[in-house]
Every structure is written in structure tokens, then in C-alpha cells.
Write a structure and sequence with these properties.
- With 242 residues, the chain is mainly alpha-helical.
- The protein has two domains: 35 residues; 152 residues.
- It is 79% helix and 0% strand.
- It contains six helices and no strands.
- Helix 3 packs antiparallel against helix 5, helix 3 runs parallel beside helix 6 and helix 5 runs antiparallel to helix 6.
- The chain is rod-shaped, with a radius of gyration of 51 Å.
């Protein structure tokens, strides 16, 4: 009986021990480490994708800014300022700036010489017309100078506005458009400078031509005064027989 009981106890102990070992969890360190590395790599890929999406979003925002147009246009004001000076030149009286018309008037009023058949009345009319043309040319030059001075005040406002727009540009397009308008302002001022030079040079040239034509007229007047008879020849005179 004692042997049977010992056998039963031994069998129970073995059964219990086997069951306990089966219930213990088996930990595979190598597999756990590999899974951890895989999870870390996947997390890094997700972070990289998020960063790429953020960069693309930033790029799209910048592209939108670069394509934003400048809501400021000074071209109409520049053209209006230039038109005022053009109007003064177009209204110039006397010798016009038209090439064909000015050449015809110049040939008539500023001859290189007057022939014997030219009447005194014609020479007087020509002299008066030349004087009036010179006065009108200097008047036009003075008006253009005055208009140029007024345009400078307007240009200061345009320049200030364009610089402000350029400094506050949100993208490349706005900066480029502001720069283009600044160049237009410089071009307008250069054109105005040429207009001023043309009007001044024209007045000076007409005054020189007037002096040359008056000299040619004076030569004809002297010829008519002297006539075709014998000219006076100065002779020495002795007084009191000395």
C-alpha cells in the first residue's frame, strides 16, 4: 500500500510540474529586437512622409505668393504726366515741330540771302515773323520747364508708392511688377528730359537763325541804300592851306 501511495504522489507531482512548465511564457529576445527595429523604421518613414507633405504645402504657399499680382498701377499716372508735356509741344506756335511744315516755313522766313526783287514790305514782314517765332519758341521752352518742375512733385508721390509696394511685396511677381513700374518712371523722366532739351535747343537754334537772316536782310538794305551810283570815296581835306 505504501508503494502504491508513493507512486500516486509521484505521478501527481510530475503532472503538476508538467502543467506549470506549459503555462510559463517563452520570451524570444532576438525576435523582440527585430520587431522593435521594424517599428522604428516604419515610424521614421511616417515622419519623413509628414515632412515631405509639409514641404510641399510650404512650396505651394510660396508659389501662390509668387503668383500674386500687384494691386497697384502707376502707369496711367505716368502717361498722364507725360501727356501734359506732349500737349505743350504739340501746341507750340510759330515754327511747328512737324518736319515737312517746319522746313517749308524755315525756308521762307530764314533765307540765306534776299534778292534784289524782294520788296521792303516782305523783308519787314519776315523780320517781324522771325522775331515772333523766336519769342514763341522761348515761351514754349519756358512752359516745358515749368511743367517739368510740376511733374517732379508728382513723381515723388509715385516713387514713394512704388518703393512701399516693392518693400511690401509678398512674392516674386509683385516685386517684379513694382520694379517694372519704377523703370517706367525712370523712362518717363528720361523722355521728359529729352523734350526739355529739344524745346530749349529749338529756341536757341531759331534765335541763331534769326540773327543770320537779319544779317542777310541788312546786307540787302545796305545795297539799296548805297545804290548803283559811284560810292563816296573819303579824301583828305586841308584847312587854311595847311
Amino acid at each position: 500500500m505504501k508503494k502504491i501511495g508513493l507512486a500516486v504522489v509521484t505521478a501527481l507531482l510530475l503532472s503538476t510540474s508538467s502543467t506549470s512548465f506549459a503555462q510559463w511564457a517563452v520570451f524570444d529576445a532576438a525576435n523582440f529586437s527585430q520587431n522593435l527595429l521594424t517599428a522604428a523604421r516604419e515610424l521614421q518613414q511616417i515622419d519623413n512622409q509628414i515632412e515631405q507633405l509639409q514641404n510641399q504645402a510650404t512650396m505651394l504657399v510660396n508659389q501662390g505668393r509668387n503668383l500674386t499680382s500687384l494691386h497697384y498701377n502707376a502707369l496711367s499716372q505716368l502717361l498722364s504726366t507725360l501727356a501734359t508735356t506732349n500737349q505743350l509741344i504739340a501746341q507750340a506756335q510759330g515754327l511747328t515741330f512737324n518736319v515737312a511744315q517746319s522746313q517749308a516755313t524755315f525756308d521762307r522766313l530764314y533765307p540765306s540771302s534776299y534778292g534784289a526783287g524782294a520788296s521792303n514790305a516782305r523783308m519787314v514782314r519776315d523780320a517781324q515773323a522771325r522775331w515772333q517765332t523766336s519769342v514763341q519758341a522761348f515761351q514754349t521752352a519756358t512752359q516745358v520747364q515749368s511743367q517739368a518742375a510740376q511733374n517732379l512733385l508728382s513723381d515723388q508721390g509715385v516713387l514713394s508708392g512704388l518703393v512701399t509696394q516693392s518693400q511690401g511685396a509678398v512674392g516674386a511677381l509683385q516685386a517684379s511688377q513694382a520694379t517694372n513700374q519704377l523703370l517706367a518712371l525712370i523712362a518717363r523722366q528720361a523722355i521728359q528730359s529729352q523734350q526739355l532739351t529739344v524745346s530749349q535747343d529749338r529756341a536757341i537754334a531759331l534765335d541763331h537763325a534769326r540773327a543770320a537772316a537779319d544779317e542777310a536782310q541788312a546786307e540787302q538794305v545796305r545795297k539799296r541804300f548805297l545804290g548803283s551810283g559811284p560810292h563816296y570815296v573819303p579824301q583828305s581835306v586841308s584847312f587854311y592851306g595847311n
